[in-house]
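Reviewer comment 2.1 asked that we show a complete input and output for one of the modelled complexes. We chose the 2-oxo-3-(phosphonooxy)propanoic acid case, as it is the one discussed in the main text.
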Amino acid sequence: MPPVSIQRVLISESVDPRCRSILQENGIEVTERQNMSKDELLAEIKNYDGLIVRSATKVTAEVVRAAGALKIIGRAGTGVDNVDVDAATKNGVIVMNTPGGNTISAAELTCALVLSLSRNVAQADMSMKAGKWDRKKFMGSELFGKVLGIVGLGRIGKEVATRMQSFGMRTIGYDPITPPDVSAAWGVEQMSLEQLWPQCDYITVHTPLMPSTTGLLNDETLAKCKKGVKVVNCARGGIIDEEALLRALESGQCGGAGLDVYVEEPPMQRALVNHPNVISCPHLGASTKEAQARCGQEIALQIVDMVKGKALVGAVSRNHEEAMEGLDSAACVVEVSLCGCGYKALGSVQAGVPVLLQLDGCVFRQPVSLAGHLLFFKAESSPQLLPSVTGEISGDCKRLTSLSPWRPSGL
Ligand SMILES: NC(=O)C1=CN([C@@H]2O[C@H](COP(=O)(O)OP(=O)(O)OC[C@H]3O[C@@H](n4cnc5c(N)ncnc54)[C@H](O)[C@@H]3O)[C@@H](O)[C@H]2O)C=CC1
Ligand SMILES: O=C(O)C(=O)COP(=O)(O)O
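Response of the prediction step:
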């Protein structure tokens, strides 16, 4: 790929200092400014060709448009729902993230919330601090033998499952993309949501926030759960409908909730946070030294690789083998010839949307829809099949030359 010139990067949130050092060591000027208002960001952004954020900076279409010279938005973390990726794409701005850098930390916090819910750790501590000694009020229940429902069996869902199994929990789950035989290999029995709801003692969600996951747990689905079910959300606010959750907590249908994320952050509406059966954190899933070090370093290295022309824009600068791990097994590889240059592209369909995962060994993880112009599909390697499906999409300078099914190593 040709090098992309990046001279000035704005870091708008608390990102590990290694990020700044790596960029500076590679001749990129870095400014760190935290807690900027929307107007301050709009005024400031035009001075930069790179922006690095976490989850708090809202990179709206307005911000993207105001940023005349912006070429790259780096997300030091996983979720890019605070970035208007479509607006960025339309304006030629690359969005890249560091998925995987904070997986373990988010999984560990999820487990901590499940454990705290089972034994009322947070509530008991508050009571002790209030000078009480209340042993009866905080009677808990064991996790051993209980059922944990995991909705979203990606990176974090998997790590949560394997950890909670060590407490003797039975782990069941649902994911429209991860194949049942893959999740079965790490001890999660997949089933439909209809089958899952009534079996769970605990439910934890680990999906991105998108139309199909917004309000996944709502009045109707909570009513299908066991009375007293406990729920955890360390993914994104809104996957569990907050008003429905409050109603379920008040009726006793929900016995407790562990929340790390909210529709509005910080939440102005405090009823959930103040509920006695809710334990909450201020979006701390990725807030560990280790996760921040990984994400800060990775995003800087990815930008440097892009500047040096080593890796394709939007790519994660990990080696090919590492990059392969964690990609879904429904992915397939095609070799694409564009204007005389050959590329090996790896694509998949996620939640019904075709997505590009890799190009020439470089991993894309931003949820950019490829619907419309480019289609990736899973098929057996077959020279006859490909021309028949590519006829529509191949133009003068586009030619798909071969297709082979791809499986991640170890599966
Ligand atoms: N609280 C925090 O600080 C952190 C939160 N996160 C959030 O956690 C979530 C999960 O992250 P990862 O595991 O890294 O993502 P991932 O992309 O590895 O996994 C997400 C899984 O959800 C599945 N999914 C999509 N639609 C679904 C549906 N309708 N029902 C069930 N499953 C569905 C996908 O197939 C995928 O397997 C994301 O929203 C991410 O932003 C990630 C890191 C830290
Ligand atoms: O990576 C993610 O998706 C997260 O939610 C972590 O957010 P943060 O970087 O801690 O603002």
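The pocket of NAI (ligand 1) is lined by residues 78-79, 99, 102-103, 106, 151-157, 174-178, 206-209, 212-213, 234-236, 260-261, 283, 285-286, 350-351 (CB under 6 Å). We note this here for comparison with the apo prediction described in Section 3.2.
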